[in-house]
UniProtKB/TrEMBL annotation:
Family stated for the protein in its record: Belongs to the TRAFAC class YlqF/YawG GTPase family. RsgA subfamily.
Source organism per UniProt: Roseibium porphyridii
Protein localization: Cytoplasm
Enzyme Commission number: 3.6.1.-
Binding residue positions for Zn(2+): 289, 294, 296, 302
Keyword Chaperone: no
Keyword Zinc: yes
Cofactor: Zn(2+)
Limits of the EngC GTPase domain: 117-264
Protein name, per record: Small ribosomal subunit biogenesis GTPase RsgA
Length: 364
């Protein structure tokens, strides 16, 4: 097979609305970030493929002329790029990610699980009704900032309220860095209003609680009720609650949409930097407090309390910041403890094995 290798080294992300044809790899989300990581020699020996689906028996990968399932590996997740070693599949090289969403597994084990890699934009979906919750939006945004994913707030069900303006105002106050879009997820609005982020070759995901309209939006983007993709399998097309797989849907002529059922139990762990970024206004204020360890309660010279008194800061935002930070600290510290216990245990095992080995030698 002859490949046009110039396609593998894009000059940069294609601009929206451009009529330039894009290569099959670019359609799969290939970007200069990945191209920079390989040499022409790598390319000849190991063609890039993207993991579009993870299931128990393996990873479904697609590339230029490649469509196959390779053995599972714990360090790769949906959205990852691999340099496929067709002779030794397990030796395929994992390319450095542009972004990574991970979570702490529910239950007692609480291991870190990789959710998805290389998402460009996450639409944080909430509806203009009782689901609307600033603290929840903030959690998702902190997570996106940490994961290096661009968040966009999408407020659905605008048709069910007389005026969504109040929801929009509240959502806009979450962060200057995060755009807010309102729409009716059924019909034509999503395609038009999300077009900037849903260009061909971009990878997007919808995050949010059950019933807010994530599936409706996904279908709206794909222009059908059953998303037409190369990765989709029959059972998934029928019922979206039946699958526990994670996969990327290739929207014909458009972006790639990640569909992951595990997004609902997201826990905040190891996202301190994301929280700092989201609450940078509070961090800046805190830097002017008289005491470095100010708790922003009743301390004299507290710049945060002063801002609240002056009406520049909403007291509830301070409360949410505190809550998020303590949740994060709790989740992360228990992980640290677990890691250190694991280490101690590992050391103990090695010592015993060593002792045993020494004794066995002595016995012989
Ligand atoms: N009126 C109105 N109904 C909507 C809108 N978006 C979604 N719905 C309806 O809300 C219901 C739930 O939408 P889904 O798309 O299934 O929500 P989801 O977020 O995918 O839910 P899960 O699959 O449980 O996570 C469906 O009946 C949709 O038709 C909207 O913008 N306006
Ligand atoms: Zn203070």
């Amino acid at each position: 097979m002859t490949r046009n290798y110039s396609d593998f080294f894009p000059s940069g992300p294609k601009s929206g609305g451009s009529d330039q044809p894009i290569s099959s790899l670019q359609k799969l989300g290939w970007q200069s970030h990945f191209a920079q990581q390989l040499s022409a020699d790598d390319l000849i020996r190991t063609p890039p493929v993207r993991v579009v689906e993870v299931h128990r028996n393996g990873l479904h990968v697609l590339g230029d002329g490649t469509d196959q399932t390779i053995p599972p590996r714990s360090d790769a997740t949906v959205g990852d790029w691999l340099l496929l070693d067709e002779v030794h599949l397990a030796s395929s090289r994992l390319l450095e990610r542009k972004s990574l969403l991970k979570r702490r597994a529910p239950g007692t084990d609480r291991q870190i699980q990789l959710i998805a890699a290389n998402i460009d934009t996450a639409f944080i979906v909430s509806s203009c009704n009782q689901d609307f919750n600033i603290a929840r939006l903030e959690r998702y945004i902190a997570l996106c900032f940490e994961a290096e994913i661009e968040p966009v707030i999408v407020l659905t069900k605008s048709d069910l309220v007389t005026d969504p303006a109040d929801f929009v105002r509240q959502a806009e106050r979450v962060s200057d860095l995060v755009p807010v879009v309102t729409l009716d997820a059924r019909g034509d609005e999503p395609v038009a209003k999300l077009a900037d982020w849903c260009r061909a070759g971009r990878t997007v995901a919808f995050l949010g609680s059950s019933g807010v309209g994530k599936s409706t939006l996904t279908n709206a983007l794909s222009g059908s009720d059953a998303i037409e993709t190369r990765a989709i399998r029959e059972d998934d097309a029928k019922g979206r609650h039946t699958t526990t797989r994670r996969q990327l849907h290739l929207v014909p002529g458009g972006c790639l949409v990640l569909d992951t059922p595990g997004m609902r139990e997201l826990q905040l762990a190891d996202v301190a930097a994301g929280i700092d970024e989201l609450f940078s206004d509070l961090n800046e204020l805190a830097a002017s407090c008289r005491f470095r360890d100010c708790l922003h309660q009743t301390e004299p010279g507290c710049a945060v309390q002063a801002a609240i008194l002056q009406g520049q800061l909403d007291a509830s935002r301070l409360q949410r910041w505190r809550k998020l930070k303590s949740e994060e600290a709790f989740n992360s510290s228990s992980l640290a403890e677990r890691r250190s216990k694991d280490k101690t245990f590992g050391k103990m095992v090695r010592r015993i094995m060593k002792d045993k080995g020494a004794r066995n030698w002595g016995d012989s």
